[in-house]
Amino acid sequence: MGSVKQDEDFADYVAVSRPALWRAAYLLCGNVAQADDLVQSALLKLYVAWPRLVRGNLDGYTRRIIANSHIDEMRRPWRRETEPLEGHEPATEMTHDDHTALIRALKALPVGQRRVVVLRHYWGLSVAETANDLGISEGGVKSQCAIGLHKLEEALTSCYRSEDRA
Hints:
With 166 residues, the protein is mainly alpha-helical. The protein has 2 domains: 82 residues, Rna Polymerase Sigma Factor, Chain: A, CATH 1.10.1740; 75 residues, Arc Repressor Mutant, subunit A (Orthogonal Bundle). Helix content is 74%, strand content 0%. It is built from 7 helices and no strands.
């Protein structure tokens, strides 16, 4: 980049956005190291594109980079292995067991459903924003979200029922 002002603007954006981007990347992949890689890759791509971006949609552009990078990573054979969920602090309003159950349930979802659920319910995007970020139809967002939420509910209900029996 040419301008010191552009670099300062980029650094300010990263300082504010990085924690939320990392949490969302972690929810997509369920692995600390992979979430770090996804965010770092997204920020690198964002830095390259920074001079030509419309400032009004930086978050959408960055979310799309993360989602697409995750798709690319999932296609790599060495990423198909199941990796442990370690090193992530659970949210304060959730117990560690709740957090672990949620991450396991999210990881069990197919990638498309997981991306839609994370964008809609973690980032709080509208159907149209999610469709735009992922490059799919609004109908696809609605159906993937409905199916994904149903599967999450089943997995979490099953998890807590089995704990009650123990």
